[in-house]
Amino acid sequence: MSIVRKLWVVVMLCLAGMAGAADLPAVFPQVRSIFPEADAYGGFEGTPPSVAVYQGGKRIGYIFLTEDVLRIPAYSGKPINTMVGLDLEGRIAGLAIVKHDEPILAVGITPERLNRYVAQYEGKSAFDKVIIGARREGHVAIDGITGATITVMVENATVMRSARLVAEARGIRPPVSPVADRKDAAAPAQPAAPAPLPAGEMPAAPAQPGAVSPPESRPQRPEPAPRPAAIASGTAGKPAAVVKQAAPSSQPVHGAMPLTPDFPPQKVAPLPAKPGTWTPPKEEPAWIAIWQNRSFDIAVLVVGLATLSFILIFQDWLAKHPNALTYVRNGFHVYTLFFIGWWGLAQLSVINVLTFVSSVMQGFHWENFLIDPMLFILWGFVATTLLLWGRGVYCGWLCPFGALQELILIASRKLKLPEIEFSDAVHERLVALKYIILILLFGVSLQSISEAAWYAEVEPFKTVISMRFQREWEYVLYALGLIAIAAFNRKFYCKYLCPLGAALAIPGRFRLFEWWLRRRKECGKPCQVCANQCSVRAIRPTGEINANECHYCLDCQVIYYNDKLCLPLIDRRKRREQQLVRGQESRANAPAKNVVVSENHPDDMGTAGQH
Predict the structure, then answer these.
(1) Could you tell me the pTM of the whole model?
(2) CA 100, CA 108: separation in Å to the nearest integer?
(3) Which residues of the chain have pLDDT under 70?
(4) How far is the C-alpha of 460 from the C-alpha of 349, rounded, in Å?
(5) What is the pLDDT of residues 248-279, one digit of tens each?
(6) Do residues 440 and 455 make contact, with C-beta atoms less than 8 angstroms apart?
(7) Are 391 and 505 in contact (CB under 8 A)?
(8) Which residues contact residue 348 at a Cβ distance below 8 angstroms, ignoring those fewer than 6 apart?
């Protein structure tokens, strides 16, 4: 019975495929926008599969789905399924995105912007080297979508590689460049010597520049008169190589060996490739070209991360010079906001974390994450700092939205705006919110990354950083509200709502070192200066630093080395000052005593002088 059921399922699937192919526009309405003049369609045939498109009984092109040809995981960890149309010359007639799970496309990118992007592919050859952004020699550049860097780069690689594979499978060849045509026309005509073909196989018809038709639509040439085939001895009766369309030449060929009955069979070399086919050049992975295009951004980012490493290593010296620390920290916030954020669009997100977890569960591939060099390098640095310092390095120094909040707080303090703080009881309960949000997002992501991306709009990063406030008014209003609150409560969003901060805090608990932020035995018992001065409320009343909430601003370290703020240092300073005063008093009183002794005992003056 199980075999009958399996056969029934196979038959039903075949019938469903035939019905879908017969009425393609009913299943995929996008086909009408790609080939509006088409009046008939074939079925999904060939490898890779595609549908032939007809007009008036004449074939005019092919339609295929990229998911059937090539699957390149995008930002969400899943491929973008796109319908692509090719004409008989290998040009892209149009394309339409059929299905995707991309967060930025689901929430953030309007259909108009997406349509403008995909329209750029129309008229491009399947054999063009299309790149996003800056122009390069030998490449065709198109504009990307701001805030969707990874998505458009993956979509570009998917569309162009799939189109090339389908074109090659249908016998379409790249057009010959006009320069090559002129050179060929100027050169004297010489007899052609095509690649040798196995016996019984006809060579493919030569491609004509500008008008290439599929193999099945080419006119058949008359069969030439058969010529005897040269057979090497010892090959089990199989012909070694036969040339059917070239006249034999009486001129000796350099390096050729005559095929004689005593010719050793081991000298017959295998043919390197199937004759009559075009072998495309080997392509480099898409991420390599992207890294090359963003070499300047990568260099500036690496310099910035090296500078931050230097700051962290020599943090004690900076803490002893608070004015220098203030300038360095504020300057780095400007760098983080403008370069890492608004220029490099390297704002990390909780969606990155959820995508990484999903990739590990479904099959991890480095190529999925190498596609964006800025995010890849930044995540690598953050992973390292999590092991050494914990969450605080990213949240306090490398988060563009966090840097914006810090700069807003500086401006509010210049304006002498009041700072509002919650009580300890309220604060402790609000801190748990971001962990609850993270758990909910993780649960939703197990079902659908795209749906989790919609709920992840609790992060204002996309609105403020990726899209630079160019969004619908409700998203902008939400982001501006959080920024306004940050002027009165330092990093309100980071402390209470940020799921990314919660995600970083979990592995940050396994950091290797605890001595980067120095504490004294008097901290918390009785001294509460650091706890009262910490605006992010990361120091417990008992004096310990809660690394899960610390943003590594180093304010507590400034107090640690300041003998006018730290109570233990104040006590030591006062004791030193008292000892110094007593020493000065004793030295001041010593000559007076000698004078008194001299008056009472005149004979001792000479003795004192001798000593």
Answers:
(1) 0.70
(2) 14
(3) 1-22, 75-77, 101, 103-109, 134, 146-147, 149, 176-284, 286, 515, 591-611
(4) 10
(5) 444 554 455 555 555 555 555 554 544 444 45
(6) yes
(7) yes
(8) 375, 378, 379, 382, 394, 399, 500
| 8-state DSSP, 397 | I
Is the backbone of residue 38 left (phi > 0), alpha (psi -120 to 50) or beta? beta
What pLDDT, in 10s, does the model give residues 119-136? Answer: 889 888 888 888 777 677
DSSP states along 174-215: PPPPHHHHHHHHHSPP----PPPB-TT-PPPPPPPTT----G
Rg (CA), the chain: 37
259's CB contacts (< 8 A; 6+ apart) are: 230, 231, 232, 240
Question: Do 74 and 82 form a contact (C-beta atoms < 8 A)?
Answer: no
- What is the biggest distance separating any 2 CA atoms in the chain, rounded to whole angstroms? 148
**How far is residue 173 CA from its own chain's centroid?**
33
Spatial contact of 174 and 202, defined as CB atoms under 8 Å apart: no
Name 378's Cβ contacts closer than 8 Å, sequence gap at least 6: 301, 305, 340, 346, 348, 398
Q: Give the burial class of 410: count Cβ atoms within 10 A of its Cβ; 0-12 exposed, 13-18 middle, 19 or more buried.
A: middle
Report d(CA 44, CA 347) in Å as an integer: 42
- Residue 65: count of CB within 10 angstroms of its CB: 19
Report the alpha-carbon distance of residue 354 to residue 361 in Å, rounded. 11
* ∠ Cα 76 81 87 (to 5°): 145
CA count, 13 A, side-chain hemisphere, 536? 25
User: What residues does each domain of the chain span?
Assistant: 28-169, 294-560
| Cβ atoms of 379 and 504 closer than 8 Å | no
Write the single-letter amino acid at 358. Answer: S
DSSP conformational letter for 134 = S
Can you name the residues that pair with 50 across neighbouring β-strands? 45
Evaluate the omega torsion of the peptide bond into residue 270 and state whether it is cis, within 30 degrees of 0.
no
Dihedral angle over CA of 342, 348, 350, 351, nearest 10:
80
Helix (H, G, I), strand (E, B) or coil at 68: helix
Tell me what pLDDT residue 244 has. Answer: 43
Rounded CA gap, 383 and 377, in Å? 10
Which residues are CB-contacts of 109 (< 8 A; sequence separation ≥ 6)? 145, 147, 148
- pLDDT score recorded for residue 7: 55
* CA distance readout (Å), 244 to 198, 237, 250, 341, 350: 10, 19, 16, 64, 64
Long-range contacts of 68-73 (CB under 8 A, 24+ apart): 68/44, 69/162, 69/165, 69/166, 70/158, 70/161, 70/162, 70/165, 72/154, 72/157, 72/158, 72/161, 72/286, 72/367, 73/154, 73/359, 73/365, 73/367, 73/368
DSSP state of 281: P
Q: At what angle do helices 424-447 and 350-362 cross, to 10 degrees?
A: 40
Residues 460 and 486: their CA atoms lie apart, in Å, by: 13
Residue 266 to residue 367: CA distance in whole angstroms: 43
The stretches of 219-294 forming alpha helices (DSSP H) are 286-293
**Residue 467, both tokens:** 């899209």
DSSP 294: T
